[in-house]
Amino acid sequence: MAPPKPPVGLRGNRPYPPAVRKLPRSFYDRDTLTVARELLGKHLVHVRAGVTRIGRIVEVEAYLGPHDLAAHSSKGLTERTKVMFGPPGHAYVYLIYGMHHCMNVVTERAGHGAAVLLRALEPVKNLEGRTQGPGLLCRAMQIDRSLNAYDLLSDDFFIATPSKVERHMVVKRPRIGVDYARHWAKRHLRFYIQDNPFVSRP
DNA sequence: TGCACGATGAAC
DNA sequence: TTCATCGTGCAC
Known about the structure:
By secondary structure, this protein is mainly beta. It has helices spanning 25-28, 32-39, 134-141, and strands spanning 43-48, 51-63, 91-96, 100-107, 114-125, 157-160, 170-173, 190-193.
């Protein structure tokens, strides 16, 4: 039996203000390049064991679909990639090099196979340690594979528009660590906030 | 059932 | 530049 909720307006210590700021499904159900660029400056929120951790997204990479040789979905529909081929607005979290976690957000319609990798955060609340890099970001936010396929419209794991939005310039660069992807390695599919000190590799 | 290989990070 | 470390995908 769930404890009764206090009346709206009387709740104290809210994990994050107004649910209206949470990005809707329609935000993710769009062109991946657009979603990637617009994720910059948004807040990633994870509530775990009563602790709300928040980071401002400052660097991302777009993985466009099965035709993109750097994308995991280029392997086709497998046990690992089925989340990428699932509905938009879900987290795709996997273990890399046997020791680090990477988090993506699934974009576009179900079956498309695209996602955006979160590469760096600017600490906003309750983040310990560095957040400059996909593995460090997940460690600081306490994100692991138990959150794979998690719906980002949940109340304890989501992305939101901050109350005060700062203007920023977007820099485009090739993605990191995908040299095996031939010409896809050269495309400028990494985006980051210009001059932000928390970008992993300016 | 075995094995090559990472969308990394840290040490040297 | 090297290496830790293990899940995944595919070869056999």
